[in-house]
Sequence to fold (225 residues):
Amino acid sequence: TAGITQAPTSQILAAGRSMTLRCTQDMRHNAMYWYRQDLGLGLRLIHYSNTAGTTGKGEVPDGYSVSRANTDDFPLTLASAVPSQTSVYFCASSDGGGGDNEQFFGPGTRLTVL
Amino acid sequence: RKEVEQDPGPFNVPEGATVAFNCTYSNSASQSFFWYRQDCRKEPKLLMSVYSSGNEDGRFTAQLNRASQYISLLIRDSKLSDSATYLCVVTLNTGGFKTIFGAGTRLFVKA
Fold:
């Protein structure tokens, strides 16, 4: 079982360009999440989805958008990238959105915005 | 004040040592607690949940002190393979569940 996959593994992006980070899980988990991880700050939640068809804003949603058309996929889009969006992005999923469930993480996408 | 605070370390210990990490949280309504492990340039993975009664998994023991609002992780008989960053995670219900990750404590176990 693949679990949760992300693509691309890494990317260098020019400021002002758009990009979509892909995330797919095969565990049939209801809840999915996007985090960014920056040195000294820990993981910060960007957006989440408790079930297919619904999304919500996390702690740092500005400059990002998500969609959840089905259970398996949860893409993250940067409409117009800025250098402050340079980070490592992790997608995660859990069996429920109740906070008591283990979150399973993808391998991450390293994004550099120049 | 950060909602979840950890000593960033690094903790440098020899193999076989016992090492303890503490994590404090600011919101008394916090209701679920976890320790995750993250290896260098890898994704976080759940190490163990933390229960009010405390729990043990082999060489790892986790404790929760609600009165003082901190959780701890004790690693006994440290192995080289324990070298990693340990993330303290707290969830609370603020009308919707909110999961907060600490910045992590780095551990280096040396031969």
About this structure: Chain B has a mean pLDDT of 93. The longest strand of chain B covers residues 84-93. The interface with chain A takes residues 4, 8, 31-32, 34, 42-46, 49, 87, 91-93, 96-99, 101-104 of chain B (CB under 8 Å). The radius of gyration of chain B is 14 Å.
